[in-house]
Structures are given as C-alpha cells and as structure tokens.
Amino acid sequence: MTGCSDKSDEAADSVGVEPADSSLASETEAAKAKASPTSSASATRSPSASASPSAAGTASSSADQSRSGDGSSTRQGSGSTAADAGSESGPNFPVPVQVGNATQVITVKASGSYATVTAWAKGSSGWKAQFSTTAGRVGSNGVTAGATRQQGTYTTPSGTYTITEGFGVESSGTAMPYRKVVSTDWWVQDPESKFYNSMHSEEGADFPLTEAGERGSERLINYPTQYAKALVVNFNRWPAVPGRGAGIFLHVNGSGATAGCVSVPKATMDQFMNWISPSAHPRIAIG
Questions:
Q1: What are the φ and ψ backbone dihedral angles of 271, each rounded to 5 degrees?
Q2: How far does CA 90 lie from the centroid of its chain?
Q3: Any idea of the CA torsion for 286, 226, 266, 59, to the nearest 10 degrees?
Q4: What is the DSSP string of 225-253?
C-alpha cells in the first residue's frame, strides 16, 4: 500500500465543503501495491520520508472532521465536499475556487507533478496573497478531476475542499485541531474497513496492521519527514467511498512527486501551520 504520505516521492517525477465529487486534498492515500481501491493519492513513500497523515484523533484532524470510532481520531466538520457553489475565479486566484464562507484559501496551480502553492486571506480590501512557493509537488501523474478520480492512480484530485484538522510527528504550532501522532496511529486505507479514510489507533482496529497488500494502511509515525506536520484535505470523506482514495494531505516535501497529496518545503509548511485558523473556515483549491 502506498499513501499520499507514502507515495513514493522518488518515483514520481515524471470541501470538506462538498467537492465536486462529494469528496472535494492528506494525501496519504494509499496507492497500494495493486492500486486497490483503498487510497489514492500518494505514491510510494519511503518510511523515512513521510510523516503521519491527518489524524483525526483528538480534535478533528486537520481536514477531517470528528471521526467516530474508539481509537479513531475525531474529525470535525461535515465531511469532504467539493466546496459549495459559487466559484470565484476573480483577477487573483490562479485556479477556480468555491469560496463559500472561507476567509483563508490555499490555491494549488499544478503543471505536471509540480505546483505553485499560495496562501490567500480576505480582508476589508478583498483577497490578497500572503505567501507562496513554486516548489510544491502533486501526484506523479498530475491533477485529475476530483469527481472521477480513482485510488491508486497517483493523481491529485482537482476541486475545492475544506481543511478542518491536522496531525504530525512534531508538535503542532497551529490553531487548528491537531493530533501529535504516536506509534499506534494509522491512516486507514483498507477499503473493507468502516474506518476507511480516517485516522484510527491499533486498539479496536478492523483493518490489518500492515502497510503491505491491497488492505494495507499507513502507519503515520513511519514517515517523520513528510508527516512532520500535515493538514488533512477533506477529499472523499463523509461518506468515504471505497476506491476513490484515502489520505489526501498537504504535507512536507519528500524526494519527488507524491502519490496524490500536495506537498511543500518544510519552511512553507511551518508557515501554513502558523497562519491557518479554524475561524477562517479554510479551504484548498486544486487545479
């Protein structure tokens, strides 16, 4: 299994608001060895290269919402959606954005497996860019329509998605609900699990505690670099449809493209964590 976080970064170069496909970008998605319908967005990651995906544990994981389930992290939010209607392209945004009630937006303008990732905030004078990086990465096979994306395709879903929680191997440094992952935390990518596309502990698990095979999941602590800090993108959540993909995150760069997540340099990820606020109803728009 390979997840966004796991995605083999090296291999790749080559909304919550109601996404267009009902799941509006953790990446951990497990592009499993056989591209099983369990998670899709990241290519195979080497354990040392990524850190844990979004943990819904304590408060809702960064883009997930309070997830239920003993041992599973709580997700807050109503799930992934492609952002409500009302796309706002405007003179500023580089990609279509369904703004809704957000006053913070992260745009991801992709070109192949590379991307420019920008933070935007809305003030009294309108939307203004806050900071940006041209060193972002997306799936090794680029961006594809979020409404039809399938797991295991090494693609990043387009669309607008809410972000409601985060997780990581490091301490938070953010106002967002955040879980500092421990050795028993997993991002479930097993399509047969009722906890599919959420964080869950080993206790009470109904999924194999392995990263291998079509039912494998991501043991978040195995990826301290990529999952040093991560925000969960609410794609394919509430409800999570098996086969659409699990674990789409905004996380730290690994050594190359992702399996479906969006990644940025560590310094930029730290900026996002310090800047993002739940009161701003943040969203991420990928195109």
A1: -65, -45
A2: 25
A3: 80
A4: TTTSSEEEE--S-SSPPTTS-S-BEEEE-
Q: In the structure encoding, which two tokens stand for residue 155, read together?
A: 């693609």
* Angstrom distance (rounded) from CA 38 to CA 53: 15
Closest CA to 168 of 176, 159, 158: 176
Domain boundaries, given as residue ranges, for the chain: 1-287
pLDDT tens by residue, 181-212: 999 999 999 999 999 999 999 999 999 999 99
Q: What is the dihedral of CA 95, 99, 104, 109, to 10 degrees?
A: -10
Greatest Cα-to-Cα distance within the chain, rounded to the nearest angstrom: 52
Cα distances (angstroms) measured from residue 182 to each of 146, 174, 233, 268 = 31, 18, 21, 24
DSSP H helix total and E strand total for the chain: 1, 14
The answer to whether the Cα torsion of 10, 211, 23, 151 is positive or negative is positive
pTM: 0.75
